[in-house]
């Protein structure tokens, strides 16, 4: 079970690093605008907000990766950080979909794997 939790947490972290890159560095690129459903004008006007939001996603990934790194040596700290990172990712996805139900696909993309990691971690420890 630990291997599955570790893989899910790592996938969640990598997904959020990818989101970080899209939001912080590629926000106005045509492919990124298509992914997020923004016009060129809307992307340009929200560029600074997206840049900041991208870093939130990066920090969640970092917390999760540090938890994965600590887990073998300091299990309690590792599990706590994994839960903090993946739990925040899952909660952010929940906020996204409760604010706008049309964002269900995006919420599932960013939140399903972290939510699975949280559930498995809670049932395991």
From TrEMBL:
Pfam families: DUF1304. The keyword Cytoplasm does not apply. This is Putative membrane protein. Keywords: Membrane, Transmembrane, Transmembrane helix. The keyword Transcription regulation does not apply. Signal peptide: none annotated. The chain crosses the membrane at residues 6-25, 54-71, 77-97.
């Amino acid at each position: 079970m630990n291997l599955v939790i570790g893989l899910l947490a790592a996938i969640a972290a990598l997904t959020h690093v990818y989101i970080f890159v899209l939001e912080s560095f590629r926000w106005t690129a045509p492919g990124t605008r298509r992914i997020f459903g923004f016009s060129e004008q809307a992307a340009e006007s929200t560029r600074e907000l997206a840049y900041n939001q991208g870093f939130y996603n990066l920090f969640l990934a970092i917390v999760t990766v540090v938890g994965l790194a600590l887990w073998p040596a300091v299990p309690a700290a590792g599990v706590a950080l994994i839960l903090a990172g993946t739990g925040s990712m899952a909660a952010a996805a929940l906020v996204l979909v409760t604010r706008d139900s049309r964002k269900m696909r995006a919420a599932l993309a960013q939140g399903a794997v972290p939510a699975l990691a949280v559930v498995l971690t809670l049932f395991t420890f």
